[in-house]
Structure prediction request, 152 residues.
Amino acid sequence: MVRNTAREIAIHLCYEVSFTGNDIKTLLDNRLKVESFAALAGEDELYKEAPNVKQGEYIRHLVLGVAEHGAELDNYIAKYAKGWDFARIPLVASAIMRVAMFEILYMPEIPNGVSINEGVEIAKKYETPETVCFINGILGSFVRQELPEEGK
Prediction:
């Protein structure tokens, strides 16, 4: 499993948390098991390979970090979603932006451009072209305005 696959799985889990309200640690413990991946592999090729220890830690870090900083990340999304009511933003789009913003703010070892590009590429699988442009615009504005030295 490569990092972009692990990132996409983290987005799936963040999305699931956003509408189920399930306990995050329990969800992670259950969903990151080899058996869970085997059960889902027939439905989605993304789950054909279970994460190794390092990838599992990365997924946990993203999902727990997004949950811990959710209000902050949502405030940033709302701030740059000009003309959009936050409640109208698709849940998948919100999960993608939360993960990318979390990486940008709290994982300096990942270049900002990688977080944005990976978020946009994942969005292309799940969202309309208009929503993909919306996500790209918000993430780009976020980096340029909140991290001006890094956004150059």
In short: Residues 3-146 form a domain with the N-utilizing Substance Protein B Homolog; Chain A fold (CATH 1.10.940.10).
